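Page 47, continued from p. 46.
Same chain as before, 441 aa.
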Amino acid sequence: MTALRVAVVGAGPAGIYAADTLLKSDAEVSVDMFEKLPAPFGLVRYGVAPDHPRIKQIVNALHRVLDNPGVRLFGNVEYGTDITLDDLREHYDAVVFATGCERDRDLDIPGIDLPGSHGAAEFVQWYDGHPDVPRDWTLDQSQVAVIGAGNVALDVARVLAKSAEDMLSTEIPDSVHTGLAANPATDVHVFARRGLAQAKFSPMELRELDHVPGLEVVVNPEDMEFDEASENEARSSKHVGMVVKILQEWALRDPRGEKRRIHLHFFSKPAEVLGTDHVEGLRIERTEYDGTGNVRGTGEFVDYPVGAVYRAVGYTGSELAEIPFDHGRGVIPHEAGRVQDLPGVYAVGWIKRGPVGLIGHTKSCASETVKSLLADVDQLPRAAKPELDAIPELLDERGVEFTTWDGWLALDKHERSLGEDRGRERMKVIPREDMVRVSRA
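Result:
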């Protein structure tokens, strides 16, 4: 039997870990990865805040996988447009979808669609230099609200409150620095529906927030409430206990008097975005514990006079052509990674399980999917055209300007040289056409 040919759609961490797991198995296998962007690495490149270089070191591990001769990268290739499911099934024995979750989850409250109300994903893509979003972002409000209790909410709040000059050492493009330099924000309010023990912040992200020059983090002592279930949660989980301890310490300290502040509000459920033709405020309903660790509304409302609202309530996946989709959960229906009613088709990562978990969860998720795929090998319909040259020839025939791993190495070198001229590690190339031009030179 010839080597198993596997296509992976999506070259972010989940797809790369799936490829790595396949290559480390006992099976003889070759993997082709298809990525809609000209560059690989997904949310590590376009979803991690630029002032978190330690998290971006994950790229080094992902780089080693893509450098394996058993993997080929086809970037700037969009599934459903440049290549179809029929194409993939004709050329590969198995197809793994690792397309992730890039869209903001909806928040169904009145006024959420007013101008000045934004999804966090849009803002993150702007400051991370995503090639498919506008390069201009209006930052003209001194009072801003962020809805959410996870690390994305913290990232958004920190970037909104941080001095633009403090971001100059990062890889942000000039357009982002110009936008941040005009930002007049002095107070960023972060609203969490539940209490301290239910916050999804990581301890490291939380601590880093308090070390930003010229920025003060404010926690209201009145939010230091716990019920029995929350106390048990804080005691039983080291992670939760650390987050609670940090927040408690902040609530009890004296104000430092900094000019820029991030206010962390708990027991605060968004009820309505206020305004007529633009955001003029955010109405919050105070909540309280119901005895189970969850919360209920109290009927007490507080209005905050903010001029912009960012919702960071989670990401959701996008429907893919010819692939079953659970619109309620924003994922591909599956059983241990096997896509429902499509033999030989699999899912991995957030498009499989939703936008939860850290890198460790992604690795175990990839292991489960690959285990299912390898268990199915004898039943897989073999590809009619498995030849290695067939796919690049098909893309060339269709006029697709695809990029490759060598192309990424060229783009990476180019970006680092741009950064070196500015005393930075790199400066991202933003326009898609420029990324393709440098990659294909």
